[in-house]
From TrEMBL:
Gene: modA
Lineage, highest ranks first: Bacteria, Bacillati, Actinomycetota, Actinomycetes, Kitasatosporales
UniProt-listed PANTHER family: MOLYBDATE-BINDING PERIPLASMIC PROTEIN (PTHR30632), SULFATE-BINDING PROTEIN (PTHR30632:SF0)
Record-stated family: Belongs to the bacterial solute-binding protein ModA family.
UniProt keyword Lipoprotein present: no
The keyword Signal is annotated on this UniProt entry: yes
The protein's name: Molybdate ABC transporter substrate-binding protein
Highest taxon listed in the record's lineage: Bacteria
Keywords for the protein's UniProt record, in alphabetical order: Metal-binding, Signal
Gene3D superfamilies listed in its UniProt record: Periplasmic binding protein-like II
Pfam families found in the cross-reference section: SBP_bac_11
Signal peptide (residue range): 1-32
Amino acid sequence: MTRSVPRTRRIRRSLRVSGGIRRSLRVSGAGAAVLLTLSACSSSSGGDEDTGSAGSSSKVSGQVTVFAAASLKESFTKLGETFEQRHPGTEVSFNFGGSDSLAAGITSGAPADVFASASPKTMATVTDAGAAAGEPSTFVRNRLEIATLPGNPERISSLEDLTASGLKVVLCDKSVPCGAAAQKALAAGGLDLTPVSYEQDVKAALTKVELKEADAALVYRTDVRAAGGKVAGVDFPEAAEAVNDYPITVLEDAPNPGAAKAFVALVKSAEGQRVLTDAGFGTP
């Protein structure tokens, strides 16, 4: 006896929707074509937006150019590698330097997607010029340390020790965030210090100590940690009066806004925050 085939087949649908809910659907013939079309429309309506989170598989591609404060070099380079691995076909290009110089470049029309500054003041240069897309958000904080030669041969133990006669001390230029923070710390201690040089970013100041061209420098604690055994670090209480907030933003004229948003999301994600705190940054 031949078993008749019902005109209406049981349909089980398989679509992944927001919130992790799953529904199954088995179809054949014209019904399959309709459902495939609907599924494609559903995917295109919101599937290309990127959150940058650890589980994201969104479709971002191309180059994303990030202008970032010099003190972010090690941690952002690591996050850039993570981003490229997570999004095949992307390339993260960095421009690290003094925040004021980076801000000036952006406002002068330098092509960039993301700006991460070492202070709200330098970020304001960009926002005041209308070059930021939306409101920047603070993602980490940083504070100063004294970097000395390995073993601290000059026995520096306080900020006041840097004023000793004959000691060669380097500071960041007053126009950049690490230099402005140094001036705040010195003012908090009631100290007057004339360095042997002012450097244009924190890495340049640290390099002077690493090359033994200076006995000490006021830099960020993240840079002391990144230098490893090349320098020694000395904490001092006045640093608490000069903590820098680091804001980040997607830029208004970003050539690749989708990838820019994805990179910012990664920086602000739990994974990004772990990388940054491991480097010595503090949470906002």
